[in-house]
Specification:
Elements (H helix, E strand, L loop, with lengths): L2 H4 L4 H14 L4 H5 L6 E4 L13 E6 L2 E8 L2 E8 L1 E13 L2 E13 L4 E7 L6 H11 L9 H11 L4 E8 L2 E5 L2 E3 L3 E4 L2 E4 L6 E4 L2 E5 L16 H16 L4 H12 L3 H5 L6 E5 L6 H11 L8 E2 L4 H10 E2 L3 E4 L8 H16 L3 E4 L5 E4 L5 E5 L7 H4 L2 E5 L15 H6 L4 H4 L4 H18 L5 H21 L4 H19 L4 H14 L8 E4 L7 E4 L1 H11 L10 H8 L5 E6 L8 E6 L7 H10 L22
Parallel strand pairs: 5-8, 8-14, 9-17, 15-21, 15-22, 16-18, 18-21
Antiparallel strand pairs: 1-4, 2-3, 3-4, 5-6, 6-7, 9-10, 10-11, 11-12, 13-14, 19-20, 23-24, 24-26, 25-26
Helix pairs in contact: 6-16, 7-9, 7-16, 15-16, 18-19
């Protein structure tokens, strides 16, 4: 209410009291109750003397109606302007990733009949009476008004703008909402201080100020209430993992560490890159158990695990709604050989690694960007996709069957698993500098132990191990007892990564064999020595791929699609800029690759060079001359 309305002897208060008396008067009550928007009632001889009003017109509330009182000398004309009153007003500001996207008001309206209803109006409806009327009519019947433009502005000023009882931030994302605040469905962790929601779902954070996640969000995380300390919770967890997993407990420990570091996804995605978690193993090996454990730490229960058959678009949408949290896809099905689906999955992994928006074409032909802000964890019965550019952006863990004794595992109990989320306030107390220093320390240590491991692989493990260290620090425990097992996991993952077949190398190295078996003619390729210090082979892509697939006609799994080959070749270390040349009578641009170090080409390079008059001392072929990576990771 305005200050004027709060004063019992103010003109507005006196007129409101007068109208209430009129309504209750046996003689005048029927007359005023029958008044509609077309009638004006004149009231003479006020029982309460009213001094001059500040203005000649005022809106007043009485009898669950809103009236316009107009001063006419010593008389007052009373006109019905709305058959309802505004009882309460709540301002709601909708926010998405720290940016205000719209402002709404929730009005509690009380009708003449006494019926109450809540209606939401947009900021535009606050200034446009037609939008206001249509909005109210859409949400509830029996609430009408007959304001002119000026009267409507006065109505909004008196009963809406100046009567906001509370301000509510409606966030369209959970997790990190900026300013050191981490939002969950039932609580907000604000710079180490936890505030739980009230019964209506609102979380107070200042005088008459509240916040809550949008009702449109899927599977919001919840923070557990517990009387136990974080130290007790982590100690109990580690003891149970050791009992259920034995010597392999390093696997769930790394996964728990990964979950901890998901709260810092945006920090690492913009610096070193943040990996996608990829768990694979046989049924019953404990993969889903591990992913559920990660979900529990971040406030999700088992029902929040997405099916592996969910679409990539829905997975990305969830990853954009959650900020510095996690999306878990359980039992991922094998990626189709369909070129578009395969390409989309590869694109998703790359997008998740650096957190950049991935563009998509919408139905109305507009390009929209889906900005992911949380990583995704996959579990699958099948080994991950055999592509180095994917796997070096993943934290790949092989969960071997027989390592996990489910009979000793205690976190199948929902209550115990949900209690893990109570660790979040202590996890979030670590500053960005503390987390980065811990990560750098661990990565430097891993580099000394694993000298020949690609930097990205070490980055992915260093992030997860840093998260595990945070848990052990909270528990006041030392991680040295499992460091040997972690090193073993890294070594095995590196060996597996190094064994991934390079499709481009595979195709190039088979060229001499394809010529030998007459699937390819020497005229179908051209070896040149003038384009670079190393010999170069040129060819038509379709001609070569047709010959390659014909050679593997009885082994379909070894065949390759032309577009897949070009995708692998695009940034390959051997790829050179295409040159225009005639090969087997066909002109146009050809693909070019350096072939130094491919032993299968030794004889072909020598014979071709002799024919082209290259000195024999320049044709010496070094089998150990393997091309190094041109683009460091």
């Amino acid at each position: 209410m305005t200050n004027e309305e709060n004063q019992p002897n103010s003109p507005i208060a006196l007129i409101a009291k007068l109208i209430e008396e009129v309504l209750n008067s046996p003689a005048l009550k029927p007359k005023l109750e029958k008044a509609d928007f077309l009638n004006t009632i004149q009231i003479d001889g006020l029982k309460h003397p009213v001094r001059d009003m500040n203005k000649n017109k005022k809106l007043v509330k009485a009898g669950n109606q809103t009236f316009l009182v107009t001063k006419k000398g010593t008389n007052y004309n009373v006109t019905v302007k709305a058959d309802f009153t505004v009882e309460k007003c709540e301002e709601q500001v909708e926010i998405k990733k720290g940016k205000k996207i719209r402002e709404n008001y929730v009005l509690t309206l009380k009708a003449k009949s006494g019926k109450e209803t809540d209606v939401m109006i947009s900021d535009k409806a606050k200034t446009d009476q037609k939008v206001f009327a249509s909005t109210i009519n859409e949400q509830s019947n029996g609430f009408n008004h007959n304001f002119s433009n000026n009267e409507f502005q006065q109505f909004m000023h008196q009963f809406v703008s100046n009567k906001v009882s509370k301000e509510v931030e409606i966030h369209h994302n959970t997790g990190d909402i900026g300013g050191g605040r981490y939002l969950m469905e039932n609580a907000c962790i604000d710079n180490g201080k936890t505030t739980f929601a009230m019964d209506n779902g609102y979380i107070p954070y200042d005088d008459n100020k509240f916040l809550k996640p949008s009702n449109n969000l899927s599977g919001c995380p919840k923070l557990a209430k517990t009387i136990r300390t974080s130290k007790e919770i982590v100690n109990e967890l580690i003891i149970n993992l050791q009992s259920a997993w034995g010597a392999s407990m390093a696997i769930p420990i790394i996964i728990c560490g990964y979950a901890v570091m998901c709260t810092r996804y945006s920090l690492f995605a913009t610096k070193s890159g943040f990996p996608t978690l990829m768990l694979f193993g046989d049924s019953g090996s404990g993969k889903s158990t591990c992913t559920a454990l990660a979900a529990g730490i971040l406030g999700y229960d088992r029902t929040a695990l997405l099916s592996g058959s969910s679409t990539l678009l829905s997975q990305m949408q969830l990853a954009s709604e959650r900020v510095n949290s996690i999306v878990i896809i359980d039992d991922l099905k094998s990626i189709s050989k369909d070129r578009k689906e395969y390409s989309n999955f590869v694109g998703l992994i790359k997008t998740l690694f650096n957190g950049q928006a991935r563009m998509k074409m919408s139905k109305d032909q507009k390009i929209d960007g889906i900005e992911v802000s949380s990583p995704i964890a996959f579990s699958s019965n099948e080994a991950p996709i055999g592509l180095k550019e994917v796997e070096n952006r993943c934290l790949v863990l092989n969960v071997f069957k027989g390592c996990f004794d489910s009979s000793k595992y205690e976190y199948f109990d929902d209550k115990k698993m949900k209690e893990l989320s109570a660790l979040l306030p202590d996890i979030l107390k670590y500053s960005e500098d503390e987390i980065l220093n811990l990560y750098c320390e661990i990565k430097a240590s891993l580099k000394k132990k694993h000298l020949c491991v690609e930097d990205r692989i070490l980055n992915n493990y260093a992030i997860a191990i840093a998260g595990a260290r945070v848990l052990f620090d909270i528990a006041e425990l030392d991680m040295k007892s499992i460091e040997e097992f972690i090193d073993k996991i890294i070594s095995e993952a590196t060996d597996s990564y190094n064994e991934i077949e390079d499709k481009v190398e595979s195709v190039l190295s088979l060229i001499p064999k394809l010529i030998e078996v007459n699937f390819l003619s020497e005229r179908d390729i051209k070896i040149r020595f003038d384009l670079s210090p190393e010999p170069v082979v040129m060819f038509h892509t379709q001609t070569l791929i047709d010959a390659y697939n014909r050679y593997y006609s009885f082994y379909p799994n070894s065949q390759i699609d032309k577009y897949d080959f070009l995708k692998f070749a695009k940034n390959h270390k051997r790829k050179m800029k295409g040159k225009s040349a005639r090969i087997n009578g066909k002109g146009g641009s050809k693909v070019c690759f350096r072939i130094d170090g491919i032993s299968e080409f030794k004889d072909l390079i020598y014979s071709t060079g002799i024919r082209q008059g290259i000195p024999t001392n320049e044709l010496d072929f070094d089998d150990d001359n393997i091309v190094e990576e041109l683009r460091p990771f």
